[in-house]
Specification:
With 101 residues, the chain is an all-beta fold. It has no helices and six strands.
Length: 101
C-alpha cells in the first residue's frame, strides 16, 4: 500500500479478508504528526479480495481522524480475465453515510 496523503491519524491498522467477514492483521503502525505523504509497506505480499484501513486514534486527544487520499499498489502478476472480461474496480460506499458520494 502506498500513497496515503494528507492524513491526520497517528495510529492505524490494515486488515485483509477473503470473504469480507473474517479479517486478519496485515500491518499496524504509527504516523508522525505531519501532512506529508505517507507510505505503508506490507511485511509480505497479500492475496485477499478485501482490504480494510482503520484509524485507531486521532491527534491531540481527539478521536477524530482524517484521510484525503489512499492508493493501493498492486504488486502481483497480471490478473486473469473472468468469463465476463477483465476484473473491474468497484467503488465501495463509505461506512459513514453523511460523506458518501
Amino acid at each position: 500500500m502506498t500513497g496515503v496523503q494528507t492524513c491526520a491519524l497517528p495510529i492505524y491498522a490494515v486488515e485483509a479478508s477473503d470473504d469480507g467477514q473474517q479479517w486478519y492483521d496485515v500491518v499496524r503502525g504509527e504516523f508522525p504528526s505531519s501532512f506529508a505523504p505517507k507510505k505503508i509497506d506490507f511485511p509480505r505480499t497479500i492475496t485477499a479480495s478485501h482490504l480494510k484501513f482503520m484509524a485507531l486514534s486521532g491527534f491531540g486527544g481527539d478521536n477524530a481522524a482524517a484521510l484525503a487520499e489512499l492508493a493501493v499498489v498492486f504488486a502481483g502478476t497480471e490478473t486473469a480475465e473472468t468469463e465476463n472480461g477483465p476484473i473491474q474496480y468497484q467503488r465501495v460506499k463509505n461506512a459513514t453515510p453523511e460523506i458518501d458520494e
